[in-house]
Structures are given as structure tokens and as C-alpha cells.
Design brief:
Layout lengths: L2 E5 L2 E4 L4 E8 L9 E7 L6 E7 L5 E3 L7 E6 L4 E6 L8 E8 L13 E2 L3 E6 L1
Length: 126
């Protein structure tokens, strides 16, 4: 049973940086074909794609809104995926979720991911 646990959220000022971590457990060999994605959801808004990475190949894909500011990476040996967030803006404020899926290659849609963490709050002061 795949489990994902996010951490690293907090309160930062505009222009600051934050690094989120997601520890994955319970996955067997098929995990090599998984995509690990980051999504975010603000109150009253739909869940929004942020970034995704293929676990074994390392290919990445970013939303236009975070491109150049956020970096997704993974440490396969530690079963951990990271989201480094720089130059944070007020509009980045949301609950950030880590997700895993193997249906398609680097999917953007939440429905393509099968496993989800509980989320971690990121608040950027204006």
C-alpha cells in the first residue's frame, strides 16, 4: 500500500524560499514507472498542477505559473521527492499535496494520480 507524507510547509514572506519534502513508502518494483507530482489547492479553488517528475527517468514538467521559480527533484535512494520553491509570491499560498501515479507519462491532471498525501500548508505573506 503506497503512502505519501509531505513536510516542510510554513509561513514565509514574499520573495522567500521554502523546500517541501514527500516521503514515499509501500511501493514495490513497479514504482520505477511512477510519476511523482506536486499539486496545490487554495480555499475556494480547484486543485492545481504544479510539477511532476518521472521516478526512474528523471523527466520533469512544470506549470507555467511556477516555471523558473520552482524545482522538482527526487532522491531515489531515500524514496523522497522535493519541491524547492524560490521567489515565492502571495498567490503561491495553498495546501500543497504530493501524489503518485503510473497511468500516463508526466500527467498534469489530478485524476491520473492514484495516491495522495495529506498535504502541507504554505503561506506567503503579502
Amino acid at each position: 500500500q503506497v503512502q505519501l507524507v509531505e513536510s516542510g510547509g510554513g509561513l514565509v514572506q514574499t520573495g522567500g524560499s521554502l523546500r517541501l519534502s514527500c516521503v514515499v513508502s509501500g511501493a514495490g518494483r513497479p514504482f520505477n514507472n511512477y510519476n511523482l507530482g506536486w499539486f496545490r489547492q487554495a480555499p475556494g479553488k480547484e486543485r492545481e498542477f504544479v510539477a511532476t517528475i518521472h521516478w526512474s527517468l528523471g523527466n520533469t514538467l512544470y506549470a507555467d505559473s511556477v516555471k523558473g521559480r520552482f524545482t522538482i527533484s527526487r532522491d531515489n535512494a531515500k524514496n523522497t521527492v522535493y519541491l524547492q520553491m524560490n521567489s515565492l509570491k502571495f498567490e503561491d499560498t495553498a495546501v500543497y499535496y504530493c501524489a503518485a501515479g503510473s497511468r500516463r507519462f508526466l500527467p498534469r491532471a489530478p485524476g491520473e494520480y492514484d495516491y495522495w498525501g495529506q498535504g502541507t500548508q504554505v503561506t506567503v505573506s503579502s
